[in-house]
Amino acid sequence: MIFVNNSGEVVYAKSLNTSTEKEEPVPDELFSMIENGSLLTKGENDTISGFVLLDKGPMFITCRPILTTKHKGPSRGTLIFGRFFDDELLDSFRKTTRSSLIIYRADEKLPPDFQMKIETVSDNPDKIVIEPLNDDQIVGYFGLKDIKGQLALILRVDYPRELFIDGEIAVNHMYFILLLTGLVIVVGVNFLLDKLIISRLKEIDDFITRISLEKDLSRRLSLGGNDEIYRLSRVINGMLNEIYLAEKELKAQASEKKVLLDSLSEFAVFVNPEYRVMWANKAVLEYAKIDLEELTKINLKEAPGVTSILVEHLHFEEIFATGEKFSEEYIAQDGRIWFVQAIPVPDENGKIIGILQTWRDITERKNAEKLLHEKQIAVIANRAKSEFLANMSHELRTPLNSIIGFSDLLSEKVYGELNEKQTRAVGNISSSGNHLLKLINDILDLSKIEAGKFELDYKEFELASKLNTIKNLLAPIAKRKKIIIEIDVDKDLTSIRADESRFAQIIYNLVDNAIKFSHENGLVNVIAQKKGDLVEIMVKDNGIGIKPEDQQKLFKPFSQIDPFSSKKFQGTGLGLSLVKQIVELHGGYVWYRSKIGEGSTFAFAIPIIGDKRNGRDRKTNIFNDTETTENTKL
């Protein structure tokens, strides 16, 4: 028994010796006939039957298409069943017919009597030739066809005359037995095929169909047995397992790629040679407000808007032809600036299979570069301004010193007596000159600081003595408003190391401001205390205070807290700015607290032991304590 699938491959082959019940090799000649298609059915209704003449002997062959149990197609292959027409079978026929049977192959040399009948039998193998052999016997000759309908075997049956009728009956019986045997064989083969092969093959087919429909690669086929179909099921399970693992790996790689691409802030689009999008990252889809499935249906060259412009702008056709990448900055209609790049993507053979197009929004970077350029220009202009002011200050101080000097000489009556009106005029000249000289000196100091040419001259001096000196200098101004200046120095503070003249300038400006903005009969406290390796000096007043909206103007050059206060309180707004700059050059910091109607506190802290180096980079710490009068310590 042999099963051959529709591809002409032998799926199952088995040969059994009916006498010994042992398995024997299938004749090679049958495999050759399978290869040339002689034994293969061509359709659902095609059948082949007849004898084949093998080296071992003649064999009766029947070939049927393999159908379902309901005998429906399509055919899954061909079942070939064969039986050797050997001596054992011939003897059984002799016993059954109780007559003499002689058989010869048509391809062998025949006896004379057979030779004489071969032409008759060859022309019509179904015809039985009967003739008397002698008075006692008659003989009958008939042929058996091969699978092509040609004569394969010639049989001669000898009958006694009196048994002629019995012999005829026996011949009929023989044909019946052969027919019945063929039917039994066909039924048995169909049963075996259905039980051993067809049902199991159908189970495999149903399983594979279910897998293809459900796309569930985790299922496995379970078949019993230890034959070729069982081994086929194991191979199928192994293939499914490999496909399942490969699919998981591909999904993981695709997920990683998607996460990576979607994490990019820049746009990424892959375009095939037909100008269709194969994939795009999340940034592109959100910007275009479109999903990937819809985007892949769009031809970029035909689509309106930015995409078609970019396709032409980036010279896609030239890139596909030359394989060279292209990049350029592009200004969109909304004013945004994009850095657009097109990179050709080749396959293993070097053929360009697509273009990776990336868009990066560089609007902020361009604006930052523009601002940086403008800032550099402003810095250069500011430095030029500072140098100009420094030079002008030097030029202005010389004539001012002469004006102040001569006005003082006139005031001291070196050149003669002055009347009361002249004395007041000369005093005004001296006072205005000194005020203008202070303004010029402040401008010169700020210019030096901004130009990086301001140097500190460190020396050690007594703190209390210096504070009292400043108090004595400002005493006449405080006396006019009946303001008391009190100084409180921590007993642990004796001397500090700093730029003495600049320290005095800081204290002078802070105390002068406190006096200026205090009410008559007010109090100004100067408190010096130690804070670690720093000395903190606070100047408190109980004057008018500063409005919250005006406090942001503090420490800015040429900025006063109230533009109308300049008529009442004389000043340029440079004092606090210089205080901040000089304190920071000492490596310290400034802070203040103020409440409208209750006064203000301005304080600074610098190292007790300073050195000759630029100040530490500290920002001014401003504590806007408008809700409480408690000191805020840094």
Care to describe what's here?
The chain has 634 residues and is α+β, with helices and mostly antiparallel strands. The chain folds into four domains: 2-204, no CATH class; 265-354, Beta-Lactamase (2-Layer Sandwich), CATH 3.30.450.20; 366-449, Orthogonal Bundle (Helix Hairpins); 456-607, Heat Shock Protein 90 (2-Layer Sandwich), CATH 3.30.565.10. 43% of the residues lie in helices and 23% in strands. A five-stranded antiparallel β-sheet has the order 2-1-5-4-3, covered by helices on one side. A five-stranded antiparallel β-sheet has the order 11-10-14-13-12, sandwiched between helices. It has a five-stranded mixed β-sheet with strand order 16-18-19-21-20, covered by helices on one side. A hairpin with a 5-residue loop joins strand 12 and strand 13 (337-346). Helix 12 (463-480) runs parallel beside helix 13 (500-516) and helix 13 packs antiparallel against helix 14. The longest helix is centred in the N-terminal third of the chain and has 51 residues, at 164-214. The radius of gyration is 60 Å and the shape is rod-shaped. The chain starts with a strand and ends in a 27-residue tail after the last strand.
